[in-house]
Write a structure and sequence with these properties.
Blueprint: H1 8-14, H2 17-33, E1 36-40, H3 42-49, E2 56-61, H4 64-75, E3 78-82, E4 87-91, E5 97-102, H5 121-127, E6 137-139, E7 148-149, H6 154-160, E8 162-163, H7 170-173, H8 177-187, E9 191-192, H9 194-205, H10 214-225, H11 230-239, H12 243-246, H13 252-272, H14 280-288, H15 294-303, H16 307-329, H17 336-343, H18 351-356, H19 361-376, H20 383-388, H21 395-409, H22 416-436
Parallel strand pairs: 2-5, 8-9
Antiparallel strand pairs: 1-2, 1-6, 3-4, 4-5, 6-7
Bound molecules: cytidine-5'-triphosphate.
Cytidine-5'-triphosphate binds near residues 55, 129, 130, 174 and 180.
Length: about 425
Amino acid sequence: KYHYKNIRELIYRSLPEAYITILEQVGTIANELGCRVFAAGGIVRDLLLGVESLDLDLVVEGDGVEMARALGRRYDARVRVHPKFRTATVLFPDGRQVDVATARVEFYQHPAAMPQIETSSLHQDLYRRDFTINAMAVSLNQNDFGDIIDYFGGREDLERGLVRVLHNLSFVEDPTRLLRGVRFEKRYAMNLEPQTFALAKEAVRSKMLERVAMERVWEELKHILSEPRPGLALYRLQEIGLWDYLFPGVDYKQVRQVLDELPRSLRVIHTWDLAEQLEPWLAYLLALLSRSDADTAGAICRRYHLGQRWTDRVHAGLSGWQDVADSLQRAQQIQMSDLARRLMPLPEEVCPLILTRLTGNAARAQLRQVLSAINYDQPSITGKDLSGMGFTPGPAFKLALDAVWQARLDGLVRTRQEELSYAREYLAAYEGVINSV
Ligand code: CTP
């Protein structure tokens, strides 16, 4: 199945209709402009593997910007041009993005001291890429739509399950490929090809990654933490000796288990439909730091320039999750409102971590209940009802509504009538206190 010469049929079978229409349009435009155009990289790999892929990267032998503009006109899409590299991004109204690159014919003296040879510009474009499985293209021109271009044996490596660099200096040219290689290896259950593995170890030994800006390292790390099973890739990273550089001060052995357990917890929480904004990468980062002290965690946040907002969430999560987990474990002795108050200031990304600590269905059910309460369980009465009862609006209203909310969680009030009288009593008592001061 990996030896297709043309994948037209596969494209029609695998991709959503809207996507296919774009590919066809691109082919039509290319014919009109008299240039050649290819879809390259991840899309070809994923089509051959039969997995879903949504990115579309185009390479144009000709003028990529012109192609992007023409495509943009046809779809009423915005086009962002990066003139320096003759690349452009087409931003479709439905949120889809297509990147268009220009492959220029240029004499390119490769640092690997290859003899300078004149090759097609597509060949040069693909040769700059990371791994053979990512360095394939498929033609979109009308006359040869679906033809596979595979100069480096990508199909064979896919079939054999090998992640292989195109040349010996690949990791030196771009050390973030160490992280990418591990990510693709684990995502597709492949292996780094032995020579590639040796080159990777060598790049680690000579500390290549230290030459890369931390923002770029983080970008790749975040990709890894967003994969379905980051634990596998993180294991591999510590195996090839990158852990201590990536997470200084964090003891891998202490967090390995929780990292392996997290995918399951995340799936469970996902089925609850209660944490829609949850960022999986942050859930993993919290798990990864769950045994570290605040200084170590703070240093990691600074290392990767996470910014105040995310750093605050990391700190809040780390300082509070254990307490919530413990409270849930002995849930019989604790009130719902008390649990809710403890969980509320924490980012929802700690929930998977908390879940890994809960034994028994009762505690898990209670976590679900608290989350649901925080998200949905609002009192039916509002400030209007309180003024309606003759109270003067002020800060006490918020306190009263909060008290009603808590009383509801603890089952002290159930109906709207009960909420009203609970609030009335609360406000009367509050006014009593104020007046007596
Ligand atoms: N690429 C590379 N070196 C990098 C980053 C990217 O050679 N450091 C190339 C790869 O060939 C890749 C393409 O650029 O296929 C697009 O990069 P990206 O979108 O990051 O990768 P995808 O292969 O699309 O992977 P994913 O499925 O994770 O989006």
